[in-house]
Amino acid sequence: MTAKLISGTETAKAIREELTREVAELKEKHNVVPGLVTILVGEDPASQSYVAAKNKTAHALGIHSEQVTLDPETSEEDLLKLVDKYNKDSKINGILVQLPLPKHINEANVLYAINPDKDVDGFHPVNVGKMVLGEQCFLPCTPHGILELLTRSGVETSGAEVVVIGRSNIVGKPIANLMLQKRDGGNATVTLCHTRTKDMAAHCKRADIIIAAVGVPKMVTADMVKEGAAIIDVGVNRIGKASNGKAILAGDVDFDAVKEVASCITPVPGGVGPMTITMLMKNTVQAAKMAAN
Ligand code: GUN
């Protein structure tokens, strides 16, 4: 079998077209322009490129976007003051503090300081709690993007055996939770695997859908995958540098071998990555609509 490619690039393009129309309509009918601020502390190259991509996408969609880059030595107190400033700024509907933060800053203190109504990352405990309860809230962008990829690609989740590998707060825990809920893209039987899981391969081999979010290049090999399974690869691992200086990326899945066993698979790059950014834009538009009502 050669798997069908689940293109995040194509799906994201379709959703961005929908969002571009929504942003234009908000401006036309209500004179509202959604506003996003991204805050980056430090000079991590991967974070710099993610934040730049978020701002570029926002501009392309007609969203007002501000980018703040702070010195790596910035104190927690100064960062909290900045968050507070944007909490009070009516031009800004969404506040994103790029993670990870430098070690001297307590991540929770910063995330909890963001007004939950502007928490377009969906990381504030109010939004996390609402998500777990199945209430209306900002869904975290990567899990939200995975749901959209699965449903728009026609992958049946209801009754499916899903194995999620990785228990991070950003991806593993929320996607496992969303997929077991009574909702479109949910109703699955979910197993959440992690570093202490005894026999990862045995769990994976039973799965109709595998979602890999571990940060270990090519960890999911063909012998771990059931014939016809759907594979979502969240990993973006920098495994070297090309002669032109560009990073060489690999996912958490051994793409070339697994595509011969799976029924469909996301590539890296061009899979989950573009979806994460797109769902951030969707949340920002949602925040602007909430503020306007
Ligand atoms: N770092 C890696 N992924 C994310 C994300 O989705 N949001 C933020 N704020 N930081 C991240």
Topology-level CATH name of the largest domain: Rossmann fold
Bound molecules: guanine
Structural class: alpha/beta
Radius of gyration based on Cα positions: 19 Å
Low-confidence stretches: none
Helix count, per DSSP?
10
Strand count, sense and closure of the main sheet?
A: 6 strands, parallel
Tally of separate domains: 2
* Overall average residue pLDDT: 97
Distance between the termini: 50 Å
Q: Please report the total strand number as a whole number.
A: 11
Trace the largest sheet across and list its strands. Answer: 1-11-8-7-5-6
Provide keyphrases for this structure.
Rossmann fold, 2 domains, alpha/beta, 293 residues, binds guanine, 17% strand, six-stranded parallel sheet
List the helices and strands and how they pair.
Blueprint: E1 4-5, H1 8-30, E2 35-41, H2 45-61, E3 64-70, H3 76-87, E4 94-97, H4 107-113, H5 125-133, H6 141-152, E5 161-165, H7 172-180, E6 189-193, H8 200-205, E7 209-212, E8 230-233, E9 237-241, E10 247-250, H9 255-258, E11 264-265, H10 272-292
Parallel strand pairs: 1-11, 2-3, 2-4, 5-6, 5-7, 7-8, 8-11
Antiparallel strand pairs: 9-10
Bound molecules: guanine.
Residues 96-99, 121, 141-142, 170, 276 line the site of guanine.
Family: Belongs to the tetrahydrofolate dehydrogenase/cyclohydrolase family.
Protein name: Bifunctional protein FolD
Binding site for NADP(+): 166-168, 236
